[in-house]
Every structure is written in structure tokens, then in C-alpha cells.
Amino acid sequence: MEAYDRFELLINDRIVKTPVAIASMAGIVDAAYVLERADHIGAAFIGGYSIDAPTLEASRRMAEEGRKEFLYDDPLEALGREVEALKQSDVVTGINLRGSTPASYAEVARAFEDAVVYEIDAHCRQPAMVEAGCGEYLLRHPAKLVEIIRALKAEDVTVSVKIRAGVASNDADLARIVWKAGADIIHADLMDFGHNKVRQIRNASPLTLIANNSITTFDKAMDAFSHGADLVSLARQSDAWTLAGLDAAITRSAEEGGWYNAPKQLCRGGDIRRSPSAACR
Ligand SMILES: Cc1cc2nc3c(=O)[nH]c(=O)nc-3n(C[C@H](O)[C@H](O)[C@H](O)COP(=O)(O)O)c2cc1C
Q1: From residue 148, how far is each of 83, 88, 122, 181 by CA, in Å?
Q2: Quick check: bond before 48 cis, omega within 30?
Q3: Distance (Å) from CA 25 to ligand 1 centroid
């Protein structure tokens, strides 16, 4: 069965061959990391990459404090090498970005156009990054997040917003705001909220939804899918063995039972829009 027929999943106008993604880890997830795991994933978000002077300074501070960060003087040149290396693969690529102004994001989008998905890092909670006006700052100041989404969409590119659940005053409102601002993807770190958070975000917006946080087994992945996630992503346990196991089990399940026909969505109070023909058998 062709990958599109199996999962009917497109991101950035490209077929996502399996609904398993790698989530970014600063200083760790780059093109080489993704290429080593490319057989088992459909999408990957490299980075996070700091893209302007205030966020690069924040990265340097964080590195001095012992965190892994990608450090360079010229962000476009550094990112260009990563994007180029991934062009040979069939993995749909996103770049997770930390910028202090909407203009910084737009500049990156002008450089790489539709070659990648542009993911806004509204997730990082490190004080240096928050002080630079990105990461979690954007969840507490959604007007700025909207400005960044609009600046990127003005460049006609695909936009993902990486959020951490439970930080914004209301995640459902945030999902609606992100949707109305024009974003294409919500990539949600569910923290400890689990599948109820998937359903809350799914019910608030029609965007492609990537569920993240400790989704390392087939059962956890299916739980996320049956409550409305389109993909799952892994960061800390994104080793080839775990990704291969997930990909194989999900693919087998789709081949045997079909992807949009999982009865438990209805039976367990899941998301009915994913299974128009599902019945509680
Ligand atoms: C070392 C490390 C670095 C991370 N860096 C980023 C980052 O730069 N941008 C981002 O959006 N999330 C970042 N994350 C968060 C992960 O993408 C992910 O949301 C989180 O680890 C939960 O998923 P997991 O349980 O699969 O690891 C980082 C996580 C770790 C552990």
C-alpha cells in the first residue's frame, strides 16, 4: 500500500509516510540525527535554532549554564547547511525557531521559502529565552505569537506552533487563536494532561495536530490518534529502536484495520471526526 493511501497525511504539500515524528532538542536534533532515523519517521523538527542577536545571546547563556545548544555566528548559514542535508530524504522537515521579533522569523522564511515547515518555539521555559521574548513567553503573550504567525504566513510558508500544555491561561482558547492567526500545525507537548488535552485542542481547532510527551509505545500512540492527533512525536526517546517499533506497529494496524476506521474513537468518547464510518462494534 502506498504511504499516502495508508495514512492520507500531507504536511507542507508533501506525503508524510508514517505519522511518527521527531521533536526538536536543542543542541541534539540536527540533520545528521534525523538522517540516521529517516527510515522510521515521516516528519522531523530540527533545532531549536536561535535566529537573532537576543536569542543567540540567550543560547550562549544557556550553554554556559550547562545546557546543550546549537551555537553559531550566522544563523542562516548554519540552518542552510542543515536544510540542504535533509533535501535528499523523504522526511518532511520542520525547523524549530527561537526569535525575538516577527521580522526575524520572516527573514528565515524568505531564505528557505517552502523547503521546510517553520515551527515557532513557544515551548522553551529557560529564563534566558523567555527574557528574550520567545519560548513560553509567547504562551503568556499570545498577541505576540499571533504577530509571528502572521509574519510567517505573509511569506506563504507552512507554520507550526510548538506549545507546552497548561501554560497559557486556556489551551482551547490558545488553539483557536493560533488557528485564526493562520497557523497550519499545533505541535503540543501534553505534559501530564494526556489524551484529554489532545481532545480539548482537537475540539478547538481543525489544524494538523501533533501530540508529544512520552508517547513511546503503540498503545500510547493509538490513544493519542483516537483522541484526535494526526501524528505523534518523540524527543528524549527518539532512538532508532523505539521509532522503528512504533512505525512498524502503527503501519501494521493501518494495514489490518484501516486508519480512519478505529471503532474505539466513538466507543471511548474520542474524536468522531476522524472516523466518519466507525461504529461501536
Ligand atoms: C534536551 C532537550 C532539548 C529540547 N529543546 C527543545 C527546543 O529547542 N524546542 C522545542 O520546541 N522543544 C524542545 N524540547 C522539548 C521536546 O521537543 C519535547 O517537547 C519534550 O521533550 C517532551 O517530549 P518527549 O517526552 O518525547 O521527550 C527539548 C527537550 C529536551 C529534553
Answers
A1: 21, 29, 11, 9
A2: yes
A3: 5
Question: Ligand 1 centroid to 29 CA: how many Å?
Answer: 10
Name the residue with the closest Cα to ligand 1, atom 9: 48
pTM, full prediction: 0.94
What grid cell was written down for 80?
542552510
Res. 64: pLDDT tops 80: yes
pLDDT of amino acid 261: 54
Which residue type occupies 31?
A
Find the Cα–Cα–Cα–Cα dihedral 29, 31, 33, 34, rounded to 10°: 100
CA of 238, closest atom in ligand 1: 26
Q: 22 and 36 in contact (C-beta within 8 Å)?
A: no
Domains of the chain (ranges plus CATH)?
3-274 (3.20.20.70)
Name which residue sits closest to atom 21 of ligand 1, judged by CA.
Answer: 235
Cβ of 120 less than 6 Å from ligand 1: no
| Rounded-to-integer distance, Cα 12 and Cα 16, Å | 9
- Per-residue pLDDT tens digits for 165-211: 999 999 999 999 999 999 999 999 999 999 999 999 999 999 999 99
Report whether residue 96 contacts ligand 1, using a CB cutoff of 6 Å. yes
Among residues 181, 160, 154, 170, the alpha carbon closest in space to that of 116 is found at 160
Check: CB of residue 114 under 8 Å from CB of residue 12: yes
Higher pLDDT, 188 or 2: 188
Rounded CA gap, 4 and 220, in Å?
23
